[in-house]
Design brief:
The protein is mainly alpha-helical. The chain is built from 14 helices and 4 strands.
Length: about 325
Amino acid sequence: MPDQQTGTNQPNARARRVLTDIASRSWEHPADKAALQALRRIPVFDAVLRKLFGFFGEKPVRLAFQANAVRVSPNQFGDVYKVYKQALKTLDAPEEYPLYITQTPMVNAGAYGMDRPFIILNSGTVALVDKDELEYIIGHEIGHILSGHVLYKTMMVFLINLANMGFPIVGLAARAVLVALLEWYRKSELSCDRAGLLTVQDPEVVMRTMLKMAGGGSSEETSLQEFIVQAEEYKQSGDVADQVFKVLNLMATTHPFYVLRVSELRAWIESGDYDRIIRGEYARRGEPDQALQDDLRAAASAYAEGAKDFLDDLSEAAKRMGSDFLGGLRAKK
């Protein structure tokens, strides 16, 4: 019988299955695929990336990210290293990517790089979460690497920083690429939430981690059930102001809100795809993608529907706000 909170049929969620040769397309969200395709169709996209590559270079970029961090190993943050090795094993990662911890209270993590990917964990993240939750976070970042996201994310970080500094390389073309990168990256987070779930193989752990990362509280002072209810209420809210602020806030952030990510992940579990993968029914690396065209059609459909919903919400909210505003003016006369 499915768990009422998580929707999973897993009889023993802590019994990990090593997902031998799993292909990243097994967990990739259709909207992620579609947004990345749209990104690559921007005429100036490759030109802007080539310009940034030529300006900075691979090695200086890598060293800049790692300059104020400690590399995790059996002798440095040994417990974190054990969690990392388990995550690599479960996703059957083809290699061990350098993992670093940097001293910062902000709860976050990231996978970066150009030709040589690496992962950085903020010390605030390590301090907040338990080992299972940390395994989910690390699995999420491994998912970014295996899905080929890290180059685009690295470029996005540089463009954001350069734009904030008013750097002359960030002209209109680069700003257009940055907007598209932000749109894609929000979708890529949905894919890697799934990769993280496949790593830890316990939906409750994943949602508990999202709760902590959203609010920063401990398990003793928060309620996962209430957070899930909040996620559903937020998604279905019909309030005019909420609709407007949901649109505006989503446009201003690199990550979709955690409450929305909880809803997306629960929908994926309820679809049965998660259980099928855990049973071993998934695409393998090196296998021809027989369903590629179907995937592309599904991706295009998801992206088109998402864009339509986005514009419809904005248009409807604007109309209702305008009507309310005019109604208020008439009432004052």
